[in-house]
Structures
1.
Amino acid sequence: MMSEPFPQPLLKPGWGLAVLASCAVGVLGLLTPFDFEASRWLWEHANPEFGEWTRRTLFEGDAPGLSDPGICFLLTSLGLYLWSARRSAPEWLQRERPYLSFIVLSALAGALGLVHGLKWVIGRARPHEVWLSDWPFTPWHSFGPHFVTEGVYFGSFPSGHTASVVTLIMLAYVLHSHPGLHRRRMWTWLWGAVGVTMAVTMAVGRVMTASHWLTDCLGMILPIWTVLHWMFHRFLRTSEQREYVRMHGSYPSVSAYWELRLAGWGFLILLGLMGLVIGLRSVWLEAGFELLVLTPLGIALIGFAWPRFRRLHEAVLSAFFVVQTNDPA
């Protein structure tokens, strides 16, 4: 049986990651000087219906909104992933598990972990709080006025709505690298363009509602994309996982739902990092000194979870790839 040619990466793992990261920093740098004025201008010249369309979602009992395709995509992928890990799952679905693992873990790392971790740590005030309630304006790279001692709050930086739409770009990676679709690369670029357009549209709409600053939305499209790219090519090596399944005809013998276990350890590491930074933040801002106790707790949590996270990650990848070891002889 003649094997299909192995698809080339959409962006080369090395320079592609560097290009995305550099562009992400560059876009944030370009937007920062105009963040306040441009956000205010968009709010004052907003189309209320357009802004409402980007805000609402079926999952909160409203009419359909722009974020719904991304949410439906993630929920469908999660359902297929949970099914694919079962022994009773059809073979075609088990073969696609590497892609489903990538989507689920990347969504947890980017759209949830990165976004909500930064929201709690940065504590940036939203535009409507600044313009209508006299909260102070702070740039995206500075600590804002909100503290976790206020209770549950949703900081402005970054935009979760925008992140949920950016995750649609993951499907372009799947389409491009899938061994059965290498002759239909045009769909990859078309879907990638659709995903980026939807993300930019969402970003503008969220600024129009005075819910976010430009840097929260437009400025975070490329950073989140960078996380997705890194997850696909470096952390999970998804194309190579899929090639293993194609060559061997089955998924390797690894623990069921290892992705969720890895996400669990990653969540503890994230909590540790948040505790560490929030504690140091109280010293930096000279306020909320009781939060300083979170710093040693965060360090302890990272020390507990990181070795377990790393061991599980290495064990899973070693099941897919030959690990070279030194011969003691």
2.
Amino acid sequence: MKKERTKDLLLEQVRKIPIIQVACEKIGIARATVYRWKAEDEQFRTQLEEVLAEGEALINDMGESQLLSLMKEKSWPAISFWLRHRNPKFRERLEVTTNVKTQDALSEEQQAIVQEALRLASLTQDAKAKEDAHELKKENNEQA
């Protein structure tokens, strides 16, 4: 019976502050005990997950409330944080620019390797595709 009462006390604490270590310290039990109960008792595990989610929601609400209070006081960091995380227009973006140079034309040996790889990659190849590949190879040879 004492064990069930201790579990209930723990769940109450976790609902208020969703940190297992803090809840354990408040009621005087070891963290290992909670994790053992969690492993042994499916119902307790489910209850713990539920109260952790409730506690996290409470903390999130408190945080948003504090953030809104700071925004009302015209705190630029708070305003900036809200906009960057809530408005796509103000999200941080990473711009990537590159200067790509084309490579030299493939040698005949390289072309043959590529053609063989393409042939092996396709199980069937119709006559038109073979003809197109042959024409392309001819054009590449003429340009080189």
